[in-house]
Amino acid sequence: MYKIMSQVIIILIVANVLVSLKGFSDAAFFDRYKFQVQRILGGEKIRMLTSGFLHVDWLHLGFNMYALYLFGELAMRNFSVINFVLIYVASLLAGSMYSLYQHKRELYYSAVGASGAVSGVMFSAILLYPDKTYSFIFFPFIEFPAYVLGIGYLLYSIYGMKNQVGNIGHSAHLGGAIGGYLITLVLRPSVITNHTIMVGIMALIILGLFFFGDKLKLNK
């Protein structure tokens, strides 16, 4: 079973690479399948899925695929093939839906990338293994517990969405993370009793986002 699950990760990575490569060399293909608010509201809902397999460049693609491999290998130990793919696809769509909600008045807003799906997989891994530690390129000698990473990620995504930090789809990251969080709790409710405080803190942040999310938008 573990071998099959590892193959699922590889298949997802290959799918992202092949579709992204096509998009790198074919501008019409890229434009046809990217996330664009006006086109989606006009009925092209498929873009909410296909945009998750396109990337703007090799760096964007490489970072997302590395994160998928890193967190996917951890999360998949707890799920069947079907449930793992469910988390991936549902998180991708959750990221697209939240982006559409946040940018519905910006008709020409567009985005691509697997970040929503990867964020969902990452949060699934964090909920399942909150005490696992990670270090980063910029802080190679400091290790952060996964639960700190998860809470920090939520807060930074909210901050980034409010202040439009960088050329990054923070709303897709946030929507994907929320999708992964919720689906993991449904599939593995034992996480709630095993890590009640962490789950509760994340729930408060997410609820706050839904109740006060409109106040995060910049007035221009």
TrEMBL record:
<dbReference type="Pfam" id="PF01694">
    <property type="entry name" value="Rhomboid"/>
</dbReference>
<keyword id="KW-0645">Protease</keyword>
<dbReference type="GO" id="GO:0004252">
    <property type="term" value="F:serine-type endopeptidase activity"/>
</dbReference>
<feature type="transmembrane region" description="Helical">
    <location>
        <begin position="135"/>
        <end position="156"/>
    </location>
</feature>
<feature type="transmembrane region" description="Helical">
    <location>
        <begin position="168"/>
        <end position="186"/>
    </location>
</feature>
<dbReference type="GO" id="GO:0016020">
    <property type="term" value="C:membrane"/>
</dbReference>
<feature type="transmembrane region" description="Helical">
    <location>
        <begin position="107"/>
        <end position="129"/>
    </location>
</feature>
<comment type="similarity">
    <text>Belongs to the peptidase S54 family.</text>
</comment>
<keyword id="KW-0472">Membrane</keyword>
<protein>
    <submittedName>
        <fullName>Rhomboid family intramembrane serine protease</fullName>
    </submittedName>
</protein>
<dbReference type="GO" id="GO:0006508">
    <property type="term" value="P:proteolysis"/>
</dbReference>
<dbReference type="InterPro" id="IPR050925">
    <property type="entry name" value="Rhomboid_protease_S54"/>
</dbReference>
<keyword id="KW-0812">Transmembrane</keyword>
<feature type="transmembrane region" description="Helical">
    <location>
        <begin position="192"/>
        <end position="212"/>
    </location>
</feature>
<feature type="transmembrane region" description="Helical">
    <location>
        <begin position="81"/>
        <end position="100"/>
    </location>
</feature>
<keyword id="KW-0378">Hydrolase</keyword>
<keyword id="KW-1133">Transmembrane helix</keyword>
<dbReference type="InterPro" id="IPR022764">
    <property type="entry name" value="Peptidase_S54_rhomboid_dom"/>
</dbReference>
<feature type="transmembrane region" description="Helical">
    <location>
        <begin position="6"/>
        <end position="25"/>
    </location>
</feature>
<dbReference type="InterPro" id="IPR035952">
    <property type="entry name" value="Rhomboid-like_sf"/>
</dbReference>
<feature type="domain" description="Peptidase S54 rhomboid">
    <location>
        <begin position="43"/>
        <end position="188"/>
    </location>
</feature>
